[in-house]
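Sample 1 of the test manifest.
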Amino acid sequence: MSNNLQILWHQGKQFIPNLTTSQVPGIFRGRPVISSTEVDLNALAALCPTNAIGTKPVSVDMGKCTFCGECAIQFPDKISFTKDYKLSATARENLIIKESDENPLLINPDEIRKEIHRVFGKSLKLRQVSAGGDNSCEMELNASNNVQFDMSRFGIEFVASPRHADGIVITGPISKNMARPLEVCYNAVPDPKVIILAGTDAISGGIFADSPALDRSFLSNHHIDLYIPGNPVHPLTFINGILDLTRRS
Amino acid sequence: MTSSETTYKIRNNQSVQLDLIPKYEYAKFRLLMIELLGKSGHHCLNYFAFKNANALQFIACIADDNNALIHLLSHEMDLDAKCTLEAITSEIPSLHLFEREIHENFGIEFNNHPWLKPVRFANNRKNKTAINDYPFYSIKSEELHEVGVGPIHAGIIEPGHFRFICNGENVLHLEIQLGWQHRGIEELFVQKKKILERTTLAENIAGDTCISHTTAFVNLWESLCNYTPDESLEFARTIASELERIAIHTGDLSAICTDIAYQMGNSVYGRLRTPIVNFFQEWGGNRLAKGLIRAGKINYPFTQILAKRLLNLLTEYEADFNEISAKLFNLPSALNRMEGIGVISNKQAITMGTVGMVARTSGLNRDIRSSHPYNLYQKLDHQPILKHSGDVYARAELRIDEIAQSISYIRKLLNNIPKFKKPENYQFVSPANTFAISLTEGWRGEICHCAITDDKGELQAYKIKDPSHHNWMALAQAVRKNEISDFPICNKSFNLSYCGHDL
């Protein structure tokens, strides 16, 4: 039987040295790019299971997109998904990618509340609330702090109690049954605090958007500081989103 | 007349005209159910009611594991009839949750049901009890205290409420209240008409079981619409299902190590999950394989290059996996936290109707891959692995052995990679007044999807049963007489789904 040092040695180097420039393996459906090629727009829009594709102008709403890639398979000349995993935005409308938008998504520092850089720039403790989440975003948020992604190197961590937290991360479309516990949890976080929506379900309701079993009133009653798209959110998308929100570049 | 002549019998991934399912008066229906479920190798796959025109129709699907058959029988009553039915649960306790669901959704009273409480506080339920008014069991005693946990837990996990009654550190009783995650999935299946919408819904039933739930849906839809998938689709679904099993079992072992404070096990198993989920991304562009399984096609062919990558990756994985597993199972401090903790006896496993890992670790042979094979499992001649101690140790050890088994299946499948066709959209047309059923064995256990179409061929009901439906009660029973500090390790060793239960 191996001793502990041998086991450690056999793992090799696991951590990803630079989380902002690292490449994801294989195919990754990140920020979409829409060409100006002419296609049957009605057919294109009708294809999407979550109505994320708009026609005037042609656009993909990353807050609604499930990143299933079906549009890129059937209309490869019109829509493609790049490997760019930096998808976060501070304003909901910035998640809508329009025809010929090819630039990376940048967070405008003017859109960030003034106290965020000052108070959370070096340390951010988050309380996660799954409100109808399907456990895929939850697994990826857990993975954000495994030995490979090691998010806590930046002082960003998930904590057990809302009393210890600087904000909440919501996953899931917010079921009626979770609406009250979510509000109670948010109220238990001391000020100043942030609200982050992680994943398509949280941002727009995703495939559940028109379900009568949801109660999304929390979102209209509070200011959302960061939207992080994905289905589920990739750990690199999550970590880069938080860094862009809290760090001055 | 014996019960075997009184049911309509089909196999996994078959369908039947709705009116061919025999209908009985309730008293007769109840007796037939009790007789069927009393036979060896029989258990209830699904039992539900749905509105069919002006009637409330009950359908029961009983598996005969020895003969790969599914018995179907039915009962019908007037939708507005105010009547009380005699519970079947009083004779067959494993039906308790099915009857509770019928009670919650349609207001049917069941006599002599021991525990007729809300299930998931579904949006369209008849019984409008609010989720905050759940009638918890309590014992009045100065010696005892109650501990309430949740719905929001300390970690990054889904919500559920646990109410313990303890004597000092010892748990006398645990009641688990679910429903917080209810998103109305079954209604959305009926509402949404496009196949891609329904596939996306199936992927989101439980994101950690994306492959097995989506496979259950596409297998069902293809069989309902009389479409025969070619071997490449069956190959992709089988290999993806075994990869999902490896990935989640590995992650669970990491989490078990966390809960016994074994940091190295947590790190090593945790990092070993990554190459498996990253392989899903290389194949289909998503770490949890969303977007991979589609009815009648696959957008991402499995190539020779991917096969070579996977073989190399598994070789590397296996060496490090075996090394840390040998270490974990020889550490006295780890064994002490696993052996004899959270025990489910064989008798309990049968009574509660447990499925999947929870059944197999208590010596109960339940595995759809061998009893009702689908996709390529017939060819693999799957032999379920059984453990008998029913404790945390057995549930950890089973994961180790099932990972080895899955790796051997994948290697076998990779010897013969079928040719993949260019993806094309098949126009599925579902027949009128038909019932279809599909079973898969996800990493947690048995998944059952049922669909019923109306006289226009449109879906009128879609019923989903996650293995957690049966197994949550097993967790509640397992922690009795254990210290409350052992609850996290017990919970993790079951790793049940909240959203799969709440739907």
